[in-house]
Amino acid sequence: MKTKFTKTLIFVSALAATDIAGAQDSDQPVMVEIRRLSMDTALTIAKTAIDACREQGVQVSVTVVDRGGHPQVVLRDVLAMDLSLEVSYRKAYTAMTFASTTSSLEDRFTGPFSVGKLEKVLLSAGGVPIQASGETVGGVGVSGAPSGETDENCALAGVAAVEMDLEMASF
């Protein structure tokens, strides 16, 4: 019995070693380079969004998240409600996750157990993905304006402020 177990263990180990060796021969690189927004770029997006909303007489909160959904820059104008901080984060996270404006997702998930019921996901206008050369590198969310349309226009202004720089970045 012990001999049979030992033979089986040796066979399984040899099989696993073969799979590992085969994986090393694949075309996959050992390391993967991941592009991220610089802090200055993220700050420019957020500040431009704040300024765009101020021009319309609205004070808002803005969150810029990186490609992993982690807050990189968070700004809240003086009179923006505290709740707008969390809402702007969720909009940014959702836009980054789905690589789509949150306004285009508003009617997409309507079932009782749909993706829209996840904790960080918010399907409300005001979130915009940040893309460079077709790759999503983050998201920006704006909250606090009287309408989601205004929130989204301010977020779009923020992304537009760095759009040329993002496209010119070498990938």
TrEMBL record:
The keyword Iron-sulfur does not apply. InterPro entries: GlcG_carb_metab_protein, PduO/GlcC-like, PduO/GlcC-like_sf. Keywords: Signal. It comes from the Bacteria. It comes from Marinobacter subterrani. This is Putative conserved protein GlcG, DUF336 family. Coiled coil: none annotated. Pfam families: HbpS-like. Residues 1-23 form the signal peptide. The keyword Signal applies. PANTHER family: SLR1406 PROTEIN.
